[in-house]
Amino acid sequence: MHHERSFRHVQITAVGSYLPPKVVTNDELASMVETSDQWITSHTGIRERRWADEGTTTSELAYQAVLDLQRRHPCQIDGIICATATPDHPGFPSVASILAERLQSRGPAVDVAAGCTGFVYALEMGRLMVASALATSVLIIGAEKLSAVLDLEDRNTCVLFGDGAAAALIEASSEELFLDSYIKSEGGGSRALTIDPNSGVITMEGRSVYTFAVRVIAETIDALLARNGLSIGDIDWIVPHQANLRIIAACAKRYEIAEEKFYMNIDRYANTSAASIPIALAEMESTGLLKKGQRIMLVGFGAGLTYGGNLLIWR
Ligand code: ACO
Which of 9, 53, 124, 256 has the fewest CB atoms within 10 Å, counting from its CB? Predict the structure, then answer.
């Protein structure tokens, strides 16, 4: 049978999120490692984070996020892309495959490993799937259980990360609301941020990642503006990966962008890697910050090193 393949317009039609209930404050961490609420808050902007229980898997966090999305927007799914650095199983089956079984989806199911840029990458892959009619309703998920890969004796890293999941649905649209993506990598930095295969925990060169982040956030914003004939005043919100408040403050100052244009919630969730951007989007939608017609820029950066962004019009 002939299968029709023509390029279609796409849009994000729904979002949803899930944060595990257990809150871990900076003071609680200070009872485990040599740190303080004052140091963590002043150097990162983080006040607390969520950690999932030991028995809760990344796919369970993701499933709960999808249920939240389906409560807001009942839908059938025929494609799943899950961005994660902390899959239930090393290698396979993917988190997306586990979700495909639970959601009874028979379309493509695949995980994306691109560190904290995973959601930005996955969104573009989902856009291409729907645009090319490979699938019609594709879930793009960011889901992480980073508490499982923390070295609780390393104060340089264990204070920075949290758990959570969120999902966005991509569907065909009568007008183009997904304007562009800028997707990049910088392979020379592959050792700057790793989950070590022997110890199973995160290792990080904090300073070099920080410098990289400030530089590539600006590069991504500039590229998306220039390619689309826009200026920063045309953008209503920048939703950056939530790694460190100081990275965003430095970027805003150096490139003269109002800090209020960047949506931040790192104070409550810390760095949830691939989940941080969609968690922010779901929160912005449920608190009424996202309005029809607004131009939104998502900007990610992280392990790989990878970076990039997406330019959307909110539906
Ligand atoms: N509590 C107290 N002291 C600490 C802590 C802590 N939790 N962590 C580090 N320190 C100490 C260090 O040991 C160091 O002490 P020393 O000078 O006696 O050696 C001192 O603080 C200063 O260390 P710096 O590295 O200079 O601190 P900086 O101000 O750069 O902040 C940080 C460190 C927060 C890690 C910063 O470099 C950063 O945010 N980097 C980017 C990290 C990041 O975003 N990673 C994720 C990327 S996304 C992904 O894909 C996972």
Answer: 256
